[in-house]
Amino acid sequence: PVKRPASGLISIEQRSASVEILPGLRTEMMTYDGVFPGPTLETRRGETVTVRHTNSLTLPTATHLHGGHTPAESDGWPTDLLVPPGFEARHAGHGAGHTGGHGGGHGGDHETMDDPKAQVRTGKRDYRYPLDQPATTLWYHDHRMDFTAPQVWRGLAGFHIVRDDEEDALSLPRGEREIPLMIADRAFDEDGALRYPALDPELLGQPGVEDRYMAGVLGDVILVNGAPWPEAEIEAAQYRLRLLNASNARRYTLRLRTDSGTPVRFTQIGSDGGLLAAPVEHDEITMASGERFDVVVDFRSLPPGTTVEMRNGLGTGRTAQVMRFRITRRATDDVRLPERLADVPEPEKPDGAVVRRWHFRKASVHGRRGWGINGKPFDPAVPQAQVPLGSTEIWEFFTDAHHPVHVHLSPFQVLRRGNHGPGPMDLGWKDTVDVRPYEAVRVRVRFEKYAGRFLIHCHNLEHEDMAMMAGFETV
Ligand code: C2O
Ligand code: CU
Ligand code: CU
């Protein structure tokens, strides 16, 4: 993806663009700045960045910075903090759509943006991100009520990387040897158009259609950074891969092996919310939608010409393939992974903490089958919990199906999974946890700084759109 330093005020235009994804075919997408994935924003910890999103699409949007410790008004609340399409603004009769286009002396961009009502008329919104949080891999994506899944599917997703001095001081692969990998499945028509089956007008309204997508929408093409099953040319060196599962509903179990069948391991150095205390080795990484795994892979011992394939143990046929790395040459590599990476407290259960239970299960949504939390479909007007700022709570997630649970605002640490401690994929600071049927997951979460309305939801984006979401309010 295109990299962009982001501090102070930066602008992103949401617009439709025709992108070549499948060789020789054009795909019409909803994009951030005309590219898919959107530009990779890079910010240093604590350098507040204001991202001015201009909506030149024909639909409303809401942008959420996933994993960001963000004030409520910039968190992308899916109903009343939308960015309406600018074209609507231009036809709204106020003539305020074109900034500076009316009443000389008034209507400069600056003035327009100070007035929230004017923001709405111009199809713009300023999102302010203080990013006072440890270095990590965040991502931004659409979050519009009922339409998150199709709008992300159509392209509204990008990385936002936070860096800090502590991480910079560590010996880690960097520069060309640090690669963000956005893994996302999609489906296409023969002419290259994206196919989002739930929106197929021929299917809508037919009996059984809702049931058909109750598990979410899967694609048969695996994209990595917007390219189908790509091959990356690399050197025989250590690489830092920032893995993100940006798929709507697909889970992956990623494994690496050489063309001669030798497995290559992952050394996990970080998860959703930042670095782990110490590196941890894995033979495989299982990721649900929304999760990130920051790993180092050591290709040093492989001779040039070797190919290493990343496969998906949960796929079949072509969805079992993800991407390949081809080693082109030997290279020097001075990186010596540190034994200690960051100060991460042991996830202990605080005495006397409030325990709150969130039951992810089916619910009826306007009389139709859908998904809910604690028996209720999402109601933007009624938060399901009030949490005092400065408090630490135990949240327990329970389901009878598979749901990746995501909490906005605050990262958490997994305390228990079922009858055991945290699983191998639960290490460090998480904001999304893969909750499996009948296996209660308990996490410890501390709420800090920003008062307002935030969300907890299933990150299977179809489930989210089918109302498996709840508001909570920090006070
Ligand atoms: Cu990545 Cu509320 O979502
Ligand atoms: Cu989020
Ligand atoms: Cu779900």
TrEMBL record:
Gly residues bias spans: 94-106
MF-aspect GO terms: copper ion binding; oxidoreductase activity
Catalysis: reaction(s): 4 Cu(+) + O2 + 4 H(+) = 4 Cu(2+) + 2 H2O
TM regions (residue ranges): none
E.C. numbers: 1.16.3.4
Originating organism: Nocardioides turkmenicus
Quaternary structure, from the entry: Monomer.
Name by which UniProt lists this protein: Multicopper oxidase CueO
Pfam families: Cu-oxidase_2, Cu-oxidase_3
Assigned keywords, A-Z: Metal-binding, Oxidoreductase
Biased composition (Basic and acidic residues): 107-124
